[in-house]
Design goal:
By secondary structure, the protein is mostly helical. The chain is 68% helix and 0% strand. It starts with a helix and ends in a 31-residue tail after the last helix.
Length: 270
Protein backbone atom coordinates (compact mmCIF):
# COMPACT_ATOMS: atom_id res chain seq x y z
CA UNK A 1 0.00 0.00 0.00
CA UNK A 2 2.85 2.35 0.87
CA UNK A 3 4.48 1.61 -2.47
CA UNK A 4 1.28 2.47 -4.33
CA UNK A 5 0.97 5.79 -2.47
CA UNK A 6 4.52 6.73 -3.31
CA UNK A 7 3.99 5.84 -6.96
CA UNK A 8 0.77 7.86 -7.07
CA UNK A 9 2.51 10.86 -5.56
CA UNK A 10 5.32 10.61 -8.08
CA UNK A 11 2.79 10.49 -10.92
CA UNK A 12 1.02 13.61 -9.65
CA UNK A 13 4.39 15.35 -9.41
CA UNK A 14 5.28 14.46 -12.97
CA UNK A 15 1.92 15.67 -14.24
CA UNK A 16 2.34 18.92 -12.34
CA UNK A 17 5.80 19.44 -13.77
CA UNK A 18 4.50 18.79 -17.27
CA UNK A 19 1.71 21.32 -16.80
CA UNK A 20 4.05 23.94 -15.34
CA UNK A 21 6.36 23.63 -18.34
CA UNK A 22 3.55 24.41 -20.80
CA UNK A 23 3.62 27.93 -22.30
CA UNK A 24 1.40 30.52 -20.58
CA UNK A 25 -2.16 30.59 -21.94
CA UNK A 26 -1.55 27.38 -23.88
CA UNK A 27 -4.71 26.39 -25.76
CA UNK A 28 -6.39 29.79 -25.36
CA UNK A 29 -8.24 31.29 -28.31
CA UNK A 30 -7.34 34.81 -29.50
CA UNK A 31 -10.69 36.05 -28.22
CA UNK A 32 -9.97 34.66 -24.76
CA UNK A 33 -6.52 36.23 -24.72
CA UNK A 34 -7.89 39.60 -25.80
CA UNK A 35 -10.66 39.59 -23.20
CA UNK A 36 -8.27 38.45 -20.47
CA UNK A 37 -5.74 41.14 -21.41
CA UNK A 38 -8.43 43.83 -21.44
CA UNK A 39 -9.68 42.76 -18.03
CA UNK A 40 -6.18 42.77 -16.55
CA UNK A 41 -5.48 46.18 -18.09
CA UNK A 42 -8.67 47.68 -16.65
CA UNK A 43 -7.62 46.35 -13.24
CA UNK A 44 -4.18 47.93 -13.54
CA UNK A 45 -2.38 44.59 -13.68
CA UNK A 46 0.14 45.65 -16.33
CA UNK A 47 2.25 42.48 -16.13
CA UNK A 48 -0.67 40.13 -16.67
CA UNK A 49 -2.14 42.29 -19.43
CA UNK A 50 1.23 42.43 -21.15
CA UNK A 51 1.66 38.66 -20.99
CA UNK A 52 -1.76 38.12 -22.55
CA UNK A 53 -1.32 40.64 -25.34
CA UNK A 54 2.22 39.51 -26.13
CA UNK A 55 0.97 35.92 -26.44
CA UNK A 56 -1.86 37.12 -28.66
CA UNK A 57 0.19 39.14 -31.16
CA UNK A 58 2.89 36.46 -31.38
CA UNK A 59 0.56 33.49 -31.77
CA UNK A 60 -2.29 35.09 -33.75
CA UNK A 61 -0.79 37.95 -35.82
CA UNK A 62 -3.76 37.80 -38.21
CA UNK A 63 -6.34 38.29 -35.47
CA UNK A 64 -8.78 41.01 -36.49
CA UNK A 65 -8.05 42.99 -33.31
CA UNK A 66 -4.29 42.53 -33.43
CA UNK A 67 -3.68 46.29 -33.82
CA UNK A 68 -5.85 47.04 -30.80
CA UNK A 69 -3.91 44.37 -28.91
CA UNK A 70 -0.62 46.04 -29.84
CA UNK A 71 -2.04 49.37 -28.74
CA UNK A 72 -2.94 47.89 -25.36
CA UNK A 73 0.52 46.33 -25.21
CA UNK A 74 2.13 49.72 -25.79
CA UNK A 75 -0.04 51.25 -23.09
CA UNK A 76 0.98 48.59 -20.58
CA UNK A 77 4.63 49.44 -21.22
CA UNK A 78 3.90 53.15 -20.84
CA UNK A 79 1.87 52.66 -17.65
CA UNK A 80 4.67 50.54 -16.19
CA UNK A 81 7.32 53.15 -16.97
CA UNK A 82 8.97 51.10 -19.74
CA UNK A 83 8.95 53.98 -22.21
CA UNK A 84 11.54 52.60 -24.65
CA UNK A 85 9.40 49.49 -25.15
CA UNK A 86 6.31 51.69 -25.51
CA UNK A 87 8.06 53.66 -28.25
CA UNK A 88 8.92 50.40 -30.01
CA UNK A 89 5.29 49.22 -30.01
CA UNK A 90 3.84 52.57 -31.04
CA UNK A 91 6.40 52.80 -33.85
CA UNK A 92 5.40 49.35 -35.08
CA UNK A 93 1.75 50.45 -35.26
CA UNK A 94 2.39 53.64 -37.24
CA UNK A 95 4.79 51.93 -39.63
CA UNK A 96 2.93 48.66 -40.25
CA UNK A 97 -0.66 49.94 -39.97
CA UNK A 98 -0.51 53.57 -41.18
CA UNK A 99 -4.21 53.68 -42.14
CA UNK A 100 -5.64 52.03 -39.05
CA UNK A 101 -7.93 54.07 -36.81
CA UNK A 102 -5.59 53.47 -33.87
CA UNK A 103 -2.65 55.05 -35.67
CA UNK A 104 -3.55 58.59 -34.59
CA UNK A 105 -3.49 57.51 -30.96
CA UNK A 106 -0.20 55.70 -31.59
CA UNK A 107 1.39 58.92 -32.85
CA UNK A 108 0.25 60.66 -29.67
CA UNK A 109 1.63 57.72 -27.70
CA UNK A 110 5.02 58.27 -29.32
CA UNK A 111 4.88 61.93 -28.38
CA UNK A 112 4.04 61.20 -24.75
CA UNK A 113 6.54 58.35 -24.47
CA UNK A 114 9.46 60.48 -25.61
CA UNK A 115 8.28 63.30 -23.34
CA UNK A 116 8.15 60.88 -20.41
CA UNK A 117 11.81 60.03 -21.03
CA UNK A 118 12.80 63.70 -20.99
CA UNK A 119 15.14 64.10 -17.99
CA UNK A 120 15.83 66.96 -15.59
CA UNK A 121 17.21 70.03 -17.44
CA UNK A 122 20.64 69.50 -15.86
CA UNK A 123 21.05 66.20 -17.71
CA UNK A 124 21.53 65.36 -21.39
CA UNK A 125 18.45 66.43 -23.34
CA UNK A 126 18.52 63.97 -26.25
CA UNK A 127 15.05 62.63 -25.44
CA UNK A 128 13.72 66.14 -24.87
CA UNK A 129 14.82 67.12 -28.37
CA UNK A 130 13.30 63.92 -29.77
CA UNK A 131 10.07 64.60 -27.89
CA UNK A 132 9.85 68.18 -29.16
CA UNK A 133 10.44 67.07 -32.76
CA UNK A 134 8.00 64.16 -32.59
CA UNK A 135 5.27 66.12 -30.82
CA UNK A 136 5.63 69.09 -33.16
CA UNK A 137 5.29 66.77 -36.17
CA UNK A 138 2.15 65.26 -34.65
CA UNK A 139 0.80 68.74 -33.95
CA UNK A 140 1.41 69.75 -37.57
CA UNK A 141 -0.03 66.55 -39.05
CA UNK A 142 -3.18 66.68 -36.91
CA UNK A 143 -3.63 70.42 -36.69
CA UNK A 144 -7.07 71.48 -35.54
CA UNK A 145 -7.82 68.20 -33.74
CA UNK A 146 -7.68 67.27 -30.06
CA UNK A 147 -4.61 65.13 -30.72
CA UNK A 148 -2.90 67.97 -32.56
CA UNK A 149 -3.64 70.42 -29.74
CA UNK A 150 -2.37 68.01 -27.08
CA UNK A 151 0.80 67.31 -29.04
CA UNK A 152 1.42 71.04 -29.48
CA UNK A 153 1.18 71.53 -25.71
CA UNK A 154 3.70 68.77 -25.05
CA UNK A 155 6.01 70.19 -27.74
CA UNK A 156 5.78 73.57 -26.01
CA UNK A 157 6.70 72.03 -22.67
CA UNK A 158 9.75 70.36 -24.22
CA UNK A 159 10.77 73.61 -25.92
CA UNK A 160 10.55 75.41 -22.58
CA UNK A 161 12.66 72.72 -20.91
CA UNK A 162 15.36 73.15 -23.55
CA UNK A 163 15.27 76.88 -22.87
CA UNK A 164 15.79 76.18 -19.15
CA UNK A 165 18.72 73.92 -20.02
CA UNK A 166 20.33 76.71 -22.05
CA UNK A 167 19.79 79.21 -19.24
CA UNK A 168 21.41 76.91 -16.70
CA UNK A 169 24.42 76.53 -18.94
CA UNK A 170 24.80 80.29 -19.22
CA UNK A 171 24.22 80.77 -15.52
CA UNK A 172 26.95 78.25 -14.77
CA UNK A 173 29.46 80.58 -16.45
CA UNK A 174 27.79 83.67 -15.01
CA UNK A 175 28.16 82.48 -11.42
CA UNK A 176 31.84 81.74 -11.99
CA UNK A 177 32.48 85.15 -13.51
CA UNK A 178 33.29 83.65 -16.92
CA UNK A 179 31.28 86.44 -18.46
CA UNK A 180 32.27 86.20 -22.17
CA UNK A 181 31.08 82.57 -22.26
CA UNK A 182 27.94 83.44 -20.32
CA UNK A 183 27.18 86.26 -22.75
CA UNK A 184 27.47 83.96 -25.77
CA UNK A 185 25.20 81.33 -24.25
CA UNK A 186 22.56 83.88 -23.28
CA UNK A 187 22.62 85.47 -26.73
CA UNK A 188 22.22 82.05 -28.35
CA UNK A 189 19.33 81.35 -25.99
CA UNK A 190 17.55 84.49 -27.17
CA UNK A 191 17.95 83.32 -30.75
CA UNK A 192 16.64 79.79 -30.14
CA UNK A 193 14.16 80.25 -27.28
CA UNK A 194 12.81 83.82 -27.37
CA UNK A 195 9.30 82.60 -26.52
CA UNK A 196 10.19 80.84 -23.25
CA UNK A 197 10.39 81.98 -19.63
CA UNK A 198 14.14 81.50 -19.85
CA UNK A 199 14.43 84.42 -22.29
CA UNK A 200 13.69 87.34 -19.90
CA UNK A 201 16.01 85.75 -17.33
CA UNK A 202 18.74 85.65 -19.96
CA UNK A 203 18.15 89.31 -20.81
CA UNK A 204 18.40 90.23 -17.13
CA UNK A 205 21.74 88.45 -16.85
CA UNK A 206 23.02 90.18 -19.98
CA UNK A 207 22.14 93.51 -18.39
CA UNK A 208 24.21 92.48 -15.37
CA UNK A 209 27.11 91.48 -17.60
CA UNK A 210 27.10 94.73 -19.56
CA UNK A 211 26.87 96.71 -16.32
CA UNK A 212 29.94 94.88 -15.03
CA UNK A 213 31.80 95.68 -18.25
CA UNK A 214 30.68 99.30 -18.28
CA UNK A 215 28.96 98.91 -21.65
CA UNK A 216 26.24 101.51 -21.13
CA UNK A 217 24.78 101.36 -24.65
CA UNK A 218 24.34 97.59 -24.59
CA UNK A 219 22.93 97.77 -21.10
CA UNK A 220 20.26 100.25 -22.17
CA UNK A 221 19.54 98.23 -25.32
CA UNK A 222 18.73 95.14 -23.29
CA UNK A 223 16.80 97.11 -20.71
CA UNK A 224 14.57 98.33 -23.54
CA UNK A 225 14.28 94.80 -24.92
CA UNK A 226 13.21 93.47 -21.54
CA UNK A 227 10.50 96.14 -21.18
CA UNK A 228 9.22 95.79 -24.74
CA UNK A 229 9.43 92.04 -25.36
CA UNK A 230 8.72 90.69 -21.87
CA UNK A 231 6.72 93.41 -20.07
CA UNK A 232 4.87 90.96 -17.79
CA UNK A 233 7.92 89.02 -16.68
CA UNK A 234 9.20 89.27 -13.09
CA UNK A 235 12.51 90.49 -14.52
CA UNK A 236 10.83 93.41 -16.28
CA UNK A 237 8.87 94.34 -13.16
CA UNK A 238 12.05 94.29 -11.09
CA UNK A 239 13.93 96.36 -13.63
CA UNK A 240 12.61 99.69 -12.38
CA UNK A 241 12.07 98.66 -8.77
CA UNK A 242 13.97 100.75 -6.21
CA UNK A 243 17.35 99.27 -5.38
CA UNK A 244 18.51 99.35 -1.76
CA UNK A 245 21.64 101.39 -1.19
CA UNK A 246 23.41 98.43 0.39
CA UNK A 247 22.69 96.07 -2.53
CA UNK A 248 25.87 94.49 -3.86
CA UNK A 249 26.08 93.18 -7.41
CA UNK A 250 26.67 89.46 -7.73
CA UNK A 251 28.89 90.10 -10.76
CA UNK A 252 32.41 91.26 -10.10
CA UNK A 253 33.46 94.20 -12.22
CA UNK A 254 36.00 93.14 -14.80
CA UNK A 255 37.36 94.24 -18.14
CA UNK A 256 35.18 93.33 -21.12
CA UNK A 257 36.50 90.92 -23.78
CA UNK A 258 37.04 93.80 -26.18
CA UNK A 259 35.04 96.38 -28.15
CA UNK A 260 32.45 95.13 -30.61
CA UNK A 261 29.23 96.20 -32.24
CA UNK A 262 25.85 96.02 -30.55
CA UNK A 263 24.29 92.60 -30.78
CA UNK A 264 21.25 92.21 -32.99
CA UNK A 265 17.85 91.34 -31.61
CA UNK A 266 16.88 87.65 -31.72
CA UNK A 267 14.04 88.22 -34.17
CA UNK A 268 16.19 90.19 -36.61
CA UNK A 269 17.02 88.24 -39.73
CA UNK A 270 18.86 90.91 -41.64
Amino acid sequence: MLTRSVAAGALVGLLGAACSSAPPFSGWTPEQLYEHGQRAFDQGDWDEARRAFERLVLTFPGFDQAVEARHYLARTFFSDGEFVSAVSEYTRIVQVYPDHERTTEAYMGLCRSYAAMSPHPQRDQQYTIQARTTCQNVANDFQGTAVGDSAAMVAGDMHAKLGDKAYQEGYFYFQRDILPSAELVFLDLLEAFPDTNAAPRAVARLIDIYEAWGWGDQQEEFRARLRESYPDSPEARELDAPVASDTVSTVRSRAPPGPRLLTRWPDDRG
